[in-house]
Design brief:
The protein is an alpha/beta fold. The chain has three domains: 77 residues, Nucleic acid-binding proteins (OB fold (Dihydrolipoamide Acetyltransferase, E2P), Beta Barrel); 154 residues, OB fold (Dihydrolipoamide Acetyltransferase, E2P) (Beta Barrel), CATH 2.40.50.1070; 166 residues, 3-Layer(aba) Sandwich (Rossmann fold). It is 25% helix and 29% strand. The longest helix is centred in the N-terminal third of the chain and has 18 residues. It is globular.
C-alpha cells in the first residue's frame, strides 16, 4: 500500500503534522507497506519505519515529514512482535535486496495473501470471501467447490487461497546481477566493492554471500573479484562514467548444473580477456558459457545491446517440469524454477484444457507458459514485443518437439486484434504482463473476444486488481486467486487469477 492508503480522516483535515524532522517518537506499528516498511502511527499520523513489524511499539527518529505521512529510522523495539526473527544475513539492514528476513516465514506468507486481498477489495472494489462485503466467514477462505459457494443464492466472492510457500525458502535464485565499483567513503574508500545496492540508492554494499542466491553465484562473484584485483582490471565508476567492469551476471541451470557467466563492460575492451576466461574456466565447475555484454551508455540499465561469446556456448539449458529451455545472456527466465513450476501448474489448472482448445498467451516471453499450455491444448498462439524473446520461444518449442505453437513479435494489444480479424477465436487467454499490468487496449480486446476463460498471472496485486475490475465490468467474473511466493524474504507477490465469462 502507498502512503495515502494509510491516511486517517484526522490527517486529511489537519493543517500541520504532529511531528517534525529529528523528533524522537514512540510509534505503534499497524501494518507493512508495499516497500516492506513498518507502518507506524503517532497521534494518528503515519510514519514509515524500516525494520518495524505489525503489533510492535517502537522508538524512532523522524527523518522526513510530508503533509500526510513521513519516514523515520528505527531506534529501538520496545514491544516486539511474536513474528519477529533474527535475520540471518549479516548485511540485511544495509542491503536493499531483501525486506522481510526479520519476519517469520509463515507470517510472510500470510502478509502476501493479505496484500492480494487488500488490493482486490480496496483498488478493485471486488468482493472477497471472508472479508467485509464478501461472503461467508473467515473459514470461507478454504477451498470450496464453486457450486457449494453458489448454493446460497448469493453471487460468490473471490476465493483467495493461502499463499503457496517453499519448503526451503533460501538459495532459490538461479540468476544474480552484481554491480562492481568502489567504496565511496570510509576507511575502504577507493577499494573494490561488489555486492548489491543499499535500499533506494546506488551505493554498493560489499558482500561475500547472498542467502537467496544460488551458492554457485557466490563462488563466481568471489572469484571475479579476485581476478579483478590480481589483474588490476578497473571496475566501473558510475559517477565519472569511467572504468571497465560494470556488472557480473551469473545464470545457473538448477537441474542441469550448467553455469553462464556474463561480464558487462563499459565498452568493448576487456583487459587481459584470455586470462580472465582461463581463470573462470579453471575455478568454476559446470561453467558452460562465458560472455561479454557491452554497455557504454550512462544508464542504470544493466545490459547493453551487444553480447558476444568469449568461450563455450551462447546458451545454457535448464528445465521447468519436463520442458527444456535454452537460456541466453539477455533472455528472460524465471529466477525461481521450483515455484515457477507451482505457478504454471496452477495456471494450467485454471485454463481447464481438454485438448480441444485454442489458447492465446499474451506477453509470452521465451514461451515458458505457452509450452506448458501446448501440452494440453489444441493450438497455442504466443505474442511478445521483444524479438530476442520470440526467437528463444521458437527455439524452445523446437527443442522440445512441440509443434502446436505459433509465436509472433509485436505488441499484444496490436497482434491479438489482428488474429481476431483473421478468425482466430480463443477459448482461453492467458496474460502475464509486467508490473504495470495489461495495456488498456488488450483488456478491451479480451472483452470483445469473450473467451470462455482468462488466466491472469500477475507480479503486482495493485494492477491485477485494477485489470480484474475492468474485466468484471466487461462481463467476466473472477472466481479464484492463488498467491505463490516466488521471492521469499522480499515484498514481491506473484499471483494467478482464474476469470471466466459471466453467462
Amino acid at each position: 500500500m502507498n502512503g495515502e492508503a494509510y491516511m486517517t480522516e484526522t490527517q486529511e483535515t489537519r493543517t500541520a503534522p504532529p511531528v517534525e524532522k529529528n523528533d524522537e517518537v514512540l510509534a505503534d506499528i499497524v501494518g507493512i507497506s508495499h516497500d516492506g516498511d513498518g507502518v507506524g502511527r503517532v497521534d494518528g499520523f503515519t510514519l514509515f519505519i524500516r525494520g518495524a513489524l505489525p503489533g510492535e511499539r517502537v522508538r524512532a527518529k523522524v527523518l522526513k515529514v510530508k503533509k500526510q505521512y513521513g519516514y523515520a529510522k528505527l531506534l529501538e523495539v520496545l514491544e516486539a512482535s511474536p513474528d519477529r526473527v533474527e535475520a540471518p544475513c549479516p548485511v540485511f539492514r544495509q542491503c536493499g535486496g531483501c525486506q522481510l528476513q526479520h519476519l517469520d516465514y509463515a507470517a510472510q506468507l500470510a502478509w502476501k495473501r493479505r496484500s492480494v486481498v487488500d488490493a482486490l477489495t480496496r483498488i478493485g472494489k471486488l468482493r472477497v470471501e471472508g472479508e467485509p462485503g464478501g461472503t461467508g466467514g473467515e473459514e470461507s477462505t478454504d477451498a470450496q467447490p464453486l457450486s457449494a459457494r453458489e448454493s446460497s443464492g448469493v453471487a460468490p466472492g473471490i476465493l483467495v487461497h493461502p499463499t503457496i510457500g517453499m519448503d526451503e525458502p533460501w538459495r532459490y535464485r538461479n540468476k544474480s546481477q552484481v554491480p562492481f565499483g568502489y567504496f565511496r567513503e570510509g576507511a575502504k574508500k577507493g577499494q573494490l566493492a561488489a555486492g548489491f545496492y543499499a535500499q533506494g540508492s546506488h551505493r554498493i554494499i560489499d558482500m561475500d554471500s547472498c542467502l537467496i542466491q544460488h551458492e554457485v553465484s557466490d563462488r563466481v562473484v568471489a572469484r571475479v573479484k579476485e581476478i579483478v584485483r590480481q589483474l588490476d582490471i578497473p571496475a566501473y565508476d558510475e559517477e565519472r562514467h569511467e572504468g571497465v567492469l560494470r556488472h557480473v551476471v551469473v545464470k545457473v541451470g538448477v537441474r542441469t548444473g550448467e553455469v553462464m557467466v556474463v561480464l558487462v563492460t563499459n565498452g568493448p575492451h576487456l583487459p587481459k580477456r584470455d586470462l580472465v576466461v582461463q581463470d573462470i574456466r579453471a575455478r568454476i565447475p559446470g561453467v558452460a558459457s562465458i560472455c561479454q555484454n557491452i554497455n557504454s551508455a550512462r544508464t542504470n540499465v544493466i545490459f547493453g545491446p551487444e553480447t558476444k561469446v568469449l568461450w563455450g556456448r551462447e546458451v545454457i539449458y535448464d528445465y521447468i517440469g519436463d520442458i527444456r529451455f535454452a537460456i541466453s545472456a539477455r533472455s528472460f527466465y524465471q529466477v525461481n524454477p521450483v515455484q515457477t513450476k507451482v505457478l504454471y501448474d496452477k495456471a494450467l489448472e485454471y485454463a481447464g484444457l481438454t485438448g480441444e482448445e485454442t489458447v492465446i498467451d499474451a506477453y509470452c516471453g521465451i514461451g515458458t507458459i505457452s509450452l506448458f499450455l501446448a501440452q494440453r491444448a489444441k493450438k497455442v498462439y504466443g505474442v511478445e514485443i521483444v524479438p530476442e524473446a520470440i526467437a528463444d520461444a521458437r527455439r524452445n518449442a523446437e527443442l522440445n518437439g512441440i509443434t502446436n505453437v505459433e509465436f509472433a513479435v509485436g505488441k499484444a494489444e496490436e497482434v491479438i486484434p489482428e488474429w481476431k480479424r483473421q478468425g482466430i477465436t480463443p477459448d482461453v487467454i492467458v496474460v502475464d504482463p509486467p508490473r504495470k499490468g495489461c495495456d488498456p487496449a488488450l483488456i478491451d480486446t479480451i472483452i470483445a473476444m469473450r473467451p470462455r476463460r482468462v488466466v491472469y498471472v500477475s507480479c503486482n496485486p495493485a494492477t491485477l486488481a485494477r485489470d480484474l475490475r475492468i474485466l468484471e465490468d466487461g462481463g467476466f467474473r473472477t472466481v479464484e486467486a492463488q498467491p505463490v511466493d516466488m521471492f521469499p524474504h522480499t515484498v514481491h507477490v506473484e499471483c494467478v487469477a482464474f476469470v471466466e465469462i459471466d453467462y
